[in-house]
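User: Show me a protein chain along with its predicted structure.
Assistant: Here is one chain, sequence first, then structure tokens.
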Amino acid sequence: MKRRVIFLLAALVGVFTLLTAGSAQARTQTPDTGSGTRSLPVNVEQRIAALEASGAKILDVTSAPYVKADAKTGAGKLAYGSAESGKAEATPAAYPTGCGLWVLVYRQGNLIYNDSLTSCLYQVLDIQMHSGLAWSRWFGWEELYSQTFDTDDSSSLDTYIWVDCTGTGTHDYQGVTNGFIETYSGDEYYAAAYDQIDRIECG
């Protein structure tokens, strides 16, 4: 966990469900109370504001806390179709470890994105995130792409991956991210979160 990779992203995130005009249907809806009243990290609020300014409507925002990792935790194993969607919207201060993971899946044109953010209240030795995108098939979820990102001596890591859905017909898309943190004292923490958009028609 020592590779420094800096990925610039319009900082975001969270497990959000995003509905762009006519393109996606949210699985779970919560009332949109306006980005100014959500309890989220500042960079997440800024990302939501940018998306809303472009005509998108955020229907749901959730996140997952980092918890103590155990020996069975695997960085590269992404669990698509998981029944767990993370905690309710929150800032890192709401979590015992002071660190949270946010994931946002959305469509822009014919590109499907998984934008992910790890944010902590303090600097840590290493942050690693393994992110993937999958689409629905008759036999279940099929992974289309995944990538691992890593940064050292930081309190946050923003990343994104995408796939081109041109000419693929209609599918549900799910983005999953596993996050790992190592502190300067040697403690290791883990989080997993996903977001999903449904019935995406790409022609």
